[in-house]
Amino acid sequence: MQNVQYASIGKRLISFTIDDIIVSLLFTAIFYQQITMLNTPELMMAFIVQYSWVLYALKVIYHTFFIANNGATIGKYAVKIKAVDEVTGAKLSWGKAFIRAIVREIGEMLFYFTFFFAFFNTKRQTLHDKISSCVVIDV
Which phi and psi (to 5°) does residue 135 adopt? Predict the structure, then answer.
């Protein structure tokens, strides 16, 4: 791909924040009844530990679905960026979008380790971008 503008770290951070808020609201809506009955910090912590897998699954589904269908999650769409194949510029296949989402969530669980790669290369690729052979560009 030639003559593309790679998305800035700032736009990617805003996109990340928007997407996390959306997925968190979805998680809260799904478990609203149970959450309202948690009246101590200990119960809240136990709930979070017990159902954290649901939050991770929601994130993987959300990111896979939107990246494979549109090349952009709602957050990416809001800041006018999208994830595309590094070579062709086409949207990612479902398989690549799924791998990207899985590695992204592993990175989050490991203190955002995979995200730091974006600071050290000209294409601003995170590890999950590199593994799925994609770049995030301005639209």
Answer: -130, 155
* Tokens of residue 138, six digits: 């301005």
Q: Please state, in angstroms and rounded to a whole number, the distance separating the CA atoms of residues 7 and 81.
A: 6
Q: What is d(CA 12, CA 18) in angstroms, rounded to the nearest whole number?
A: 10
pTM (2 d.p.): 0.93
CB 84 within 8 A of CB 133: no
Residue whose pair of structure tokens reads 């998305």 in the numeric block: 7
- Written as six digits, the tokens of 14 are 């805003």
Burial class (CB in 10 A: 0-12, 13-18, 19+), 123: middle
* pLDDT per residue as tens digits for the range 105-127: 999 999 999 999 999 999 999 99
Coil, helix or strand for 138?
strand
- Spatial separation of the C-alpha atoms in residues 71 and 139, rounded to whole Å: 10
Q: Looking at this protein, which amino acid is placed at residue 2?
A: Q
Task: Provide DSSP, 6-37.
Answer: BPPHHHHHHHHHHHHHHHHHHHHHHTHHHHHT
The span from the CA of 15 to the CA of 26, in Å, is 17
pLDDT tops 90 at residue 39:
yes
